[in-house]
Design a protein that fits this description.
It contains three helices and two strands, in the order ββααα. It is mainly alpha-helical. It is elongated, with a radius of gyration of 31 Å. It has a domain of 42 residues. A hairpin with a 4-residue loop joins strand 1 and strand 2.
Length: 113
Amino acid sequence: MKIHPTSNMLLPIMNPKPVAPIELLEMIFCGCKTNCNTSRCSCKKAEIKCSYSCKNCNGQSCENTSNSHKVILESDTEERQDDIDDIEDNENLWNDEINDLQEEEVDETQTEN
């Protein structure tokens, strides 16, 4: 809030901007302790799906969850598995390389004797 001087008084000038983005101000989330399947659920009451902001279900472990959350979680799991597979492949390559070097050392030692 700013102060605007006038002839004999100071008047406040209100900020025309919202205090937060509209999306945030309108965000609804629930604190259900059950499966968000009753009209007590504030998300269900507002006809929206539960989201990550919901206190207990996090938009994942209830009956009012969006399928898009599940898809995102599944794709994240697939990506993590791909990363794990890549790491295991690299580890196998390194192990093969080490084995080859060890075999060469043994061969060289036998050749010298």
